[in-house]
Structures are given as structure tokens and as C-alpha cells.
Amino acid sequence: MERPAWAPRGIDISVPSVSRVYDYYLGGSHNFEVDREAARRAMGFMPGLPKIMQANRAFLSRAVRFAADEGITQFLDIGSGIPTFGNVHEVAQSVRPGARVVYVDHDPVAVAHSTAVLAGNEEADVVTADLRKPQEILASPQVQRLIDLNQPVALLLVAILHFVEDEDDPYGAVAELRDALAPGSLLVVSHASYEGIPLSRERAQGAVDVYKDIRNPLIMRTRDDIARFFEGYDMVEPGLVPMPKWRPDSASEDEDPYSYSGFAGVGRTA
Fold it and tell me: What angle do CA 37, 18, 4 make, to 5 degrees?
């Protein structure tokens, strides 16, 4: 397999990556055939996966605009993935010029492209780190330079927590990050669930098994399990709901049925 010029040296391009599979769902070009094959296998069970990812991206954009409208000028996006249209810094800085954004990901392709996209933007940066190690994120030079933890921060955990297994204590990681944030900070979460998928659980399980096969297990939690991530936060209206129902720009009834898969919500620290 020929290595594209944009692929960082040292990555194994024969192994699928969740970030690159997501990029493929969104119509991006920074993915390999191995990623496309994994995506097509998953779509064989759940053909609406691209619609779910589009709904997730639209929720992220609305949540960032909401945070900026609420006066938040600092954004910490963990599990940010490969840059695509409507990146957090673009949305936030369009509402709040000078808003500061730090992206965090452990995928080398995501980090490399974020670095390229952010060239010349002094108010945004990227960190190579993992959600499972919150202190490494908080102590990074990029966060230290751009994020004042004594002021409110929007913590974005969008489509990332369902890739952290219970044995790695995702609830502990989220709580550790929460405790580092100033009052008035926001937590933005979207999370996969069997609830809302317009398929039988058995059929949807086939897509989940594809992620297990590529060594990136997809943890499908219940609404109650997802709500636990918001302990210590007051939920912002309309609460924890399917993605199209979170402060929609237009009638959510017009959305594809697949876009109602999983849940999204925003919480605010007291």
C-alpha cells in the first residue's frame, strides 16, 4: 500500500483508525482503503451511520454556538478527530473573536491535520493526549498557554466517551476534568446507544462488532448510563435528548430516522 504524502511517518496504514473511519463517513479524504473497508462493513449492518455522524457534527456546531452565546471564550475539545467543515475554532471564533480552542486527540493523522489547519492561528492549538489521562491534558503546554482554568471552559466530549471502556473508568476521567473547571463551565457530550436506532438490536450489534474487530470497541450505553457523565452539572434545556432534538435550527421531524440514534446534552457547573 502506497503511503500518501499527508500520512505521518510511523503510523500503520494497514490498521483502521476510528478517526479516519469517521472522516470517511463525513465525506472526507484523509482515510485509507482499510478505513473505508471497515466503514463499509459497518454500514452493511447499519446503513445510516453517515447520517448519525452528520447529526453529531451538527449538534457539535449548535452546542459550540450556544456556549459562545453564553459568554464562553475557552473550548477544550477532547477526541476532536480529523478537521472538517465547521471546526470548533471556526464556529467559536465566528461568534466570539479571540475565543481560544485546544484540540486533543491521540490519532497522529488527526493531530497532523489539526496542526496544519491551525497554522497561524494563535488562539488555537492541538495536543497529542488521551482522555483516559486527564492530568496529562491539563498539564500540557498548549492548555497551560491558552486555557485559564479559573475562568469558565466548554469541555467538549463529543462522540468520544463511547470508545472508552468501563474498565478504563470514563466516569472517573470526566469527574477529574470537571473538578478542574471553574464554576459556569459547560460539559458537551454526545454518545452512542442502542436506544433510538431504527433497527433491531441484533442488526445494530453487527456494526458494533465491526468496531470490536478493528480493536476500537464501541460501548453502547443506556440513556441512564450516559446521564451519569453529567454528575455535578445542571442540565441545560432540553436535557439529554436525541441529537436532532437538542436546540434544533429547524424542525427536527425532518431529520433522517438514523439521526435520532444515541443521545446528546449540555450541562453547566454551579
Answer: 65
Q: What is the pLDDT of residues 119-136, one digit of tens each?
A: 999 999 999 999 999 999
Work out whether the CA dihedral 211, 213, 219, 222 comes out positive or negative: positive
CA distance linking residue 52 with residue 260, whole number of Å: 8
Compute the distance between CA of residue 207 and CA of residue 218 in angstroms, rounded to an integer: 9
Is the CB of residue 137 less than 8 Å from the CB of residue 128? no
Nearest CA to 208 among 226, 192, 195, 196? 192
- Fill in the amino acid letter for 90: E
Residue 74 pLDDT exceeds 70 = yes
Q: Give the integer Cα–Cα distance in Å for 81 and 240.
A: 23
* Contacts of residue 54, Cβ cutoff 8 Å, sequence gap at least 6: 26, 259
* Separation between Cα atoms, residue 154 and residue 65, nearest integer Å: 11
- The span from the CA of 8 to the CA of 122, in Å, is 23
Q: What is the pLDDT of residue 2?
A: 60
How far apart CA 197 and CA 240 sit, in angstroms, is 16
The sheet with strand 186-191 has its strands ordered as 124-128, 100-105, 74-78, 154-158, 186-191, 263-269, 233-235
Q: Are 175 and 231 in contact (CB under 8 A)?
A: yes
Sequence-ordered strand ranges (E) for the chain: 74-78, 100-105, 124-128, 154-158, 186-191, 233-235, 263-269
Predicted confidence (pLDDT) per residue in 88-147, tens digit: 999 999 999 999 999 999 988 889 889 988 999 999 999 999 999 999 999 999 999 999
